[in-house]
Design goal:
With 295 residues, the chain is mainly alpha-helical. Among the domains are: 2-107, no CATH class; 108-154; 246-294. It is 57% helix and 5% strand. The protein has a three-stranded antiparallel sheet. The protein is rod-shaped and about 170 Å long. It starts with a strand and ends with a helix.
């Protein structure tokens, strides 16, 4: 420190003239007390180099001084020095002129220099924070990747359903269309076979011959005797029903045709029209069987 052109030093009280003070030493102590009374503590706190030297002295000379682990502001350092000076543990002594080659004066910082140092300090702190943040993000991403890998390894294997491609779908459609066309051709062939196996609708139809206009001619039945009940008819039981009898060979032939038609119904009718077609086919076969037998 410099006051009125002199350099001032800090001592522990029992380290400066412990065996008695001379008049010159007492004057040096009195000059230090005058400096302390007239000191501008705010000006002291604004000088980083001065604050640094004071803090080093407090750490080495004052056992009770304990700086904060989170950092100590310059104002707190100056307050700690003032506390030690007031209670007498530390003394400020004016040094001799020949003690230091130079005067030791440290000029106060200008506003521009103070702002520059403040910005440099903020930039340094920001770079440190950015580096720590980047390392933390990388470590967190690595941890998440490890957790994801562990979950994937513990997960049971999953069977994925095959996704059909356009070419596979087209091939499947062509196969379905071919099967449909083949089934339609088979049904058409079966229907033709059934139609050809059925008897002609004109079989057994009575031929009327040439039909003339009403009242202009005769018919094969116009000259026949009228129908009337005759007591001479055989059988007097009115509940009896007359039927045309057939031979055993004819009966067997009718039954054989009936079985063939039933087999055709079982094989083709259901595919052509479902249950309704099946029922109709069997009913027609039975009707033709009855006609063949004369009923």
């Amino acid at each position: 420190m410099r006051y009125e052109g002199h350099r001032f030093l800090l001592y522990r009280r029992w380290n400066y003239a412990p065996h008695g003070r001379t008049e010159e030493q007492q004057e040096a102590i009195d000059a230090g007390q005058a400096l302390f009374k007239a000191a501008n503590l705010e000006h002291w706190a604004s000088q980083p180099e001065l604050v640094e030297r004071i803090q080093i002295f407090l750490r080495n000379a004052v056992p009770s001084y304990c700086p904060s682990p989170f950092g100590t502001s310059p104002r707190d350092v100056i307050k700690a020095l003032c506390w030690e000076v007031r209670n007498g543990a530390v003394v400020i002594v004016r040094a001799k002129a020949a003690y230091i080659a130079h005067d030791g004066f440290v000029p106060a910082l200008t506003e521009d220099e103070r702002y520059r140092r403040k910005m440099a300090d903020m930039a340094e702190r920001g770079a440190i924070f950015e580096a720590r943040t980047k390392a933390y993000r990388e470590e967190l991403a690595e941890y998440h990747q490890q957790v994801e890998d562990a979950e994937r390894a513990a997960r049971p294997p999953q069977v994925f359903r095959h996704i059909e491609t356009i070419a596979e779908a087209a091939a499947r459609n062509r196969a379905a269309w071919a099967a449909r066309d083949a089934l339609a051709a088979l049904a058409s062939t079966a229907a033709s076979a059934v139609a050809t196996s059925l008897p002609s609708m004109d079989k057994g139809v009575f031929e009327l011959g040439n039909v003339s206009e009403v009242g202009t001619g005769t018919t094969p039945l116009s000259d026949a005797a009228p129908f009337k009940y005759s007591p001479s008819e055989s059988g007097s039981d009115l509940l009896s029903i007359a039927a045309r009898g057939v031979s055993e060979s004819h009966e067997a032939e009718c039954h054989s045709e009936y079985e063939i038609e039933m087999q055709q119904c079982d094989a083709l009718a259901f595919h052509m029209g479902g249950a309704r077609m099946m029922t109709l086919c069997k009913q027609n076969a039975f009707d033709r069987y009855q006609q063949c037998r004369g009923y």
